[in-house]
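Tokens help. Our protein:
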Amino acid sequence: MAYSKIGIIGAMDIEVDTLKGALTDKVVTRISGIDFYSGKLFDKDVVIAKCGVGKVFSAVTAEIMILKFNVDAIINTGVAGSVSSLKIGDIAISTSVVQYDMDTTAIGDPLGLISGINIIYFVSDERLSSTALNVAHGLGLRAELGVIASGDKFVSDKKIKKHVETNFGALCVEMEGGAIGHVAYINNVPFVVIRSISDDGDNSHAVEFATFAKTSAEVSVKVIKGLLTSI
């Protein structure tokens, strides 16, 4: 399957600025306060946007990309906090995503269940995931496939880290991928989340994030570039 137009979403400038700078034939369209950069990137038609932090911003951005720009695949790039053996600079690539803060267990639902569609894990596109893994390994990076967990919280608590790891078997925590996967699922659009580890998701999280976020984001961007030239 060839992808005719690919959407690339990052939450922060450091996650998308390098990619926007490499765009040719650039056109900027502002919708709902978000700037969408359309153009060519490594001979691929793409739309790039900085969505902002959190699940609502990322869901809005993904939906606009699908409905207004007709993307037929979405890549979410950025940084994350490890809740596994992954270390700073390593790469987590989604096989699925989950919203770990979705909790209707009080009425008998499983933790993480999205009511109405009755799904906990949104499955990533296998081709995108496996290609991204091969690219990362080709760059000499340590990379793993697995669950990426999202919630509207900047995790700096070992208890939350343990909760996410134990209940969802996640590689890392972040704040957007689960919502992007949700939107992609209901629109039948393939997606993948690619995250470079910027911190260990515990009490040292804030210091590590400030120190390593930029360099970790650059690692993620390298994988995106390789992925675009391989699909």
